[in-house]
Specification:
alpha+beta; 5 strands
Amino acid sequence: MRLDELPYRTPATVSAIDWTILSETDGKRLRNLGFDEGVDIEALHGAPFGKDPLAIRVGRMMVAMRRAQARAVSVQVEAMDLAAE
């Protein structure tokens, strides 16, 4: 599942990032913010009507990112979170 598809308030882990679809500047920004495989992540909320930006928790930090950037990030929802619902 891509980060832009992750339901809000659902903890997940970054499984892959497609660096090739990001600009060099966007890729550098995401790396500097701690985006990498294995990082805990959670989509907190987005702008009304499905617009930018998304508020994302990365580790203990909250960042804003565009949906186009979020499409490059693949996430894996933890199985125990799905079973709890």
